[in-house]
């Protein structure tokens, strides 16, 4: 299928890289556009035969599936400008969580779906979060699912849980990277180990954990139990982490939910104003 992307920022580029690397789509079957055209041109240099167009309307003319990879505030004006340019058999895919599928359907006269990718999709792993619109046919669902399965593990998520699911799968790599960097910094500040060696050891450890989990050799809880010896050093370290945690992740999810609601309210104001005209 011909695939188009409107927006080639971090997430748009991630999707193109994953599509090409997984061979879910050939570069010559992908069309892109970006407000700063040079970004799209640079992506085309990376993936030869990728097609670059000057406007979103041109991308719609050359694509069966269109990923909308723009910031939430840009969605409403973009969708209004494209309202008459879709054809019924196209699939429009939003990659942003604050805008609901229902709101997308109010301005897009074709089949709609939301797909939240993750940076780990670049390694052909991790999840993509999928919320189908009401008009998606079973055939189109299966086609899209097959494409996403080439570079991820697609999971269907309802509107109620889209934010927390995104926190875990899409924001999670940043959260974990932060914690791992803090662990490295703590080791360097407390001992004579070099940052280079501490980083290497930590990186290889994380890679190994990923393989153990992927191969289902252990669960997260089993990993903790296997490494922890009663009365041993690991237990001492875990006690420190337990004390320091003090509800940190509960606070984290409360704050991300708060920001999510603010973004939703901003989107609602634009979409509701349009609907009430």
* Element pattern in H and E: EHEHEHEHEHEEHEHHHHH
Determine the N-to-C terminus distance: 37 Å
Per the principal axes of the C-alpha atoms, what is the gross shape? globular
> Could you report the average pLDDT, rounded to the nearest whole number?
94
* Strand element count: 8
SS-based structural class?
A: alpha/beta
The percentage of residues in β strands lies in: 5-15%
The CATH architecture of the largest domain can be named as 3-Layer(aba) Sandwich
Largest sheet: 8 strands, mixed
CA radius of gyration: 22 Å
Helix content: 55-70%
Instruction: Give unreliable regions as ranges.
Output: none
At the first level of CATH, the class of the largest domain is Alpha Beta
The CATH homologous superfamily name of the largest domain equals NAD(P)-binding Rossmann-like Domain
Tally of distinct domains = 2
How many alpha or pi helices?
A: 11
CATH topology of the largest domain: the name is Rossmann fold
Main-sheet strand order equals 3-2-1-4-5-6-7-8
What does this structure look like?
- This protein has two domains: 3-157, Rossmann fold, CATH 3.40.50.720; 165-252, ProC C-terminal domain-like fold (Orthogonal Bundle), CATH 1.10.3730.10.
- Strand 5 (91-94), helix 5 (101-107) and strand 6 form a beta-alpha-beta unit.
- With 277 residues, it is an alpha/beta fold.
- The chain has helices spanning 10-21, 37-46, 56-61, 72-82, 101-107, 138-149, 162-190, 195-214, 220-227, 233-245, 248-275, and strands at residues 3-6, 30-33, 51-52, 65-68, 91-94, 111-116, 127-132, 153-156.
- It is built from eleven helices and eight strands.
């Amino acid at each position: 299928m011909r695939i188009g992307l409107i927006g080639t920022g971090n997430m748009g580029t991630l999707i193109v890289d994953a599509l090409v690397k997984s061979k879910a789509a050939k570069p010559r079957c992908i069309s892109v556009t970006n407000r700063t055209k040079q970004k799209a041109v640079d992506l085309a240099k990376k993936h030869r035969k990728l097609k670059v167009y000057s406007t979103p309307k041109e991308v719609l003319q050359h694509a069966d599936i269109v990923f909308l990879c723009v910031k939430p505030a840009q969605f409403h004006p973009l969708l209004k400008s494209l309202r008459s340019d879709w054809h019924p058999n196209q699939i429009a895919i939003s990659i942003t969580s604050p805008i609901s599928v229902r709101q997308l359907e109010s301005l897009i006269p074709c089949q709609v779906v939301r797909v939240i990718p993750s940076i780990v999709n670049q390694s052909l792993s991790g999840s993509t979060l999928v919320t189908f619109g009401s008009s998606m046919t079973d055939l189109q669902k299966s086609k899209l699912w097959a494409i996403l399965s080439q570079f991820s593990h697609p999971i269907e998520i309802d509107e109620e849980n889209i934010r927390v699911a995104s926190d875990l799968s899409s924001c999670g790599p940043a959260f974990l990277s932060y914690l791992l960097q803090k662990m490295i910094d703590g080791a360097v500040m407390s001992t004579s180990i070099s940052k280079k060696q501490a980083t290497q050891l930590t990186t290889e450890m994380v890679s190994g954990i990923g393989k153990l989990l992927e191969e289902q050799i252990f669960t997260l809880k089993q990993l903790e139990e296997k490494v922890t010896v009663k009365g041993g050093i690991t237990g001492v370290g875990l006690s420190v982490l337990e004390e320091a945690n003090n509800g940190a992740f509960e606070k984290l999810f409360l704050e991300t939910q708060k920001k999510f609601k603010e973004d939703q309210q901003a989107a609602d104001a634009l979409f509701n104003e349009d609907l009430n005209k």
